[in-house]
Design goal:
Elements lengths: L3 H24 L6 H9 L2 H18 L6 H29 L11 H8 L20 H16 L7 H20 L12 H14 L8 H16 L5 H18 L1 H4 L3 H8 L1 H22 L3 H34 L5 H8 L1
């Protein structure tokens, strides 16, 4: 069962990223106030929180469970891919139907295919190694992490951290730089944040994420201050370590979050918020320009549309597609796993 504290952090991270991209889409990161600076310069740290949470959740979800690597990957693909595929195709359709709304985007069939397969590739518009739905760059890292973690399922739970760490170092620290895989995409030190999440999961399972409320609250304040101040160090240190402190502090405060249906729902919808929000923001910018509306008058409209669409997306697209995939792959059949084990 998902920790409500983690759900709250997922929701917070998603909406911070929305604020970051609002500043990008509407203002090209030009800031005129401390709040604008906060979202423009620090909002991307929401992704780092996501990565730490991903390591934590995957470790806890697989600990002491009879999961084969193949079954684990099927479950992850069934959960993550359908919504991403849907919004990637929707993005392609919108670029064709409403090119004025997406003046900096274009699509090529081969690039769409690579995007759907989670293979990093240069965007046709030439602004870097991004999939067609550009927020999907994080999912390329997620899929690599899932694959390496799937291999680690062959060993006991207590050894999985070391196996994943070794595989990440091999792929991202040696093979990727040597072969220049995807232009060095996988050499990004952000992958270390998955390992931070695994460590938090190990501590949680051992009952070590307990303390009086003042300590995790102090950790949250310290982490936020560290993110705001920043430092001239690699991203995994500048934002990754504070993100890990945020997550472990949130987990430690779990007793205070239990039973909150609102926070659970906000967390449930966070993935769809992440996938949908840039399209909503581009549409909002186009509407604001044509109607002569202030960006800040359009912001609450974009927030409301994103929230409503994300809620519908989670209820019908995410949950519905997951049920279909589980039925197709027999993941609802408890005897199937038993047969696989023999």
């Amino acid at each position: 069962m998902m920790l409500i504290s983690v759900q709250a952090l997922r929701a917070l991270a998603a909406w911070v990223v929305v604020g970051h991209h609002f500043m990008q889409v509407f203002f090209n990161f030009e800031v005129h106030s401390p709040l604008e600076y906060l979202f423009a310069d620090k909002g991307a740290a929401g992704v780092d929180v996501f990565f730490v949470i991903s390591g934590l959740v995957i470790f806890l979800a697989s600990a002491d469970k009879a999961l084969t690597p193949w079954r684990f990957m099927l479950m992850r693909v069934a959960r993550i891919a359908p919504a991403y595929w849907f919004y990637t195709l929707l993005m392609a359709l919108l670029i064709v139907a409403l090119p004025a709304m997406f003046p900096n985007d274009e699509w090529v069939l081969s690039h769409v295919a690579l995007s759907m397969l989670f293979i990093p590739a240069q965007h046709p518009a030439g602004f870097g190694i991004y999939p067609l739905l550009d927020v999907g760059w994080t999912l390329n890292f997620e899929m690599l992490f899932y694959l390496l973690f799937a291999l680690a399922l062959w060993v006991r739970t207590s050894y999985r951290f070391w196996v994943v760490a070794g595989l990440l170092y091999l792929v991202c620290g040696i093979i990727s730089p040597a072969l220049n895989l995807a232009g060095g995409f996988y050499s990004n030190d952000i992958v270390l944040e998955f390992l931070m999440g695994i460590v938090i999961g190990m501590l949680y399972r051992r009952g070590l994420c307990r303390a009086r409320a003042w300590l995790p609250l102090l950790g949250i304040v310290g982490a936020l201050v560290a993110i705001y101040i920043g430092a001239d160090v690699p991203r995994s240190l500048e934002w990754g370590v504070p993100s890990a402190v945020l997550v472990i502090s949130g987990v430690t405060l779990e007793p205070y979050f239990k039973g909150s249906r609102l926070l659970k729902m906000l967390g449930d919808c966070s993935y769809s918020v992440y996938l949908i929000h840039t399209m909503v923001l581009y549409a909002g910018r186009w509407a604001a320009e044509h109607a002569g509306i202030s960006p800040y008058a359009m912001l609450p409209v974009c927030i409301a549309v994103t929230a409503l669409c994300a809620f519908a997306s989670y209820q019908w697209l995410e949950k519905g597609s997951y049920r279909v995939f589980k039925r197709w792959f027999g993941m609802d059949d408890p005897t199937r796993l038993s047969r696989q084990k023999h």
